[in-house]
């Protein structure tokens, strides 16, 4: 069961630490254009971190916001004011791949095509079938 429901995993892993209700600052020289990986994942590093990069099975703590193409936000740890912790091998492939591209303390924006997200099934009530997912993610901790 490779692709677990990202939102349930993220919500279940919430920590009790209060966090900001908005993302931290981006680097002034952060790229405006996205880079596309061989899998079709698009990303741009918004803030370079100085810590370790996670591996595909790392346990990470993040703050994030997720939205659809039309701008509808479907989930946000910022709104809950709680960082979220999870294993990278337990989320959608776009997150597993994307978070390995940023260092601890950094921030990345991801554009996840349906085949690396929830695909044809979507997630009833939150994410429609074949939806492209957008995330801004701050990598707080890597273990």
From TrEMBL:
- Cite the InterPro entries for this sequence: PPIase_dom_sf (IPR046357), PPIase_FKBP_dom (IPR001179)
What Gene3D superfamilies does this protein map onto? 3.10.50.40
Record flagged with keyword Transport: no
Identify the species of origin: Allorhodopirellula heiligendammensis
Q: What is its EC number?
A: 5.2.1.8
Q: What's the catalysed reaction? A: [protein]-peptidylproline (omega=180) = [protein]-peptidylproline (omega=0)
Q: Which family does it belong to?
A: Belongs to the FKBP-type PPIase family.
Gene Ontology molecular functions: peptidyl-prolyl cis-trans isomerase activity
This protein is called what?
Peptidyl-prolyl cis-trans isomerase
Q: Which PROSITE patterns match?
A: FKBP_PPIASE
Give positions of region: Disordered: 18-38
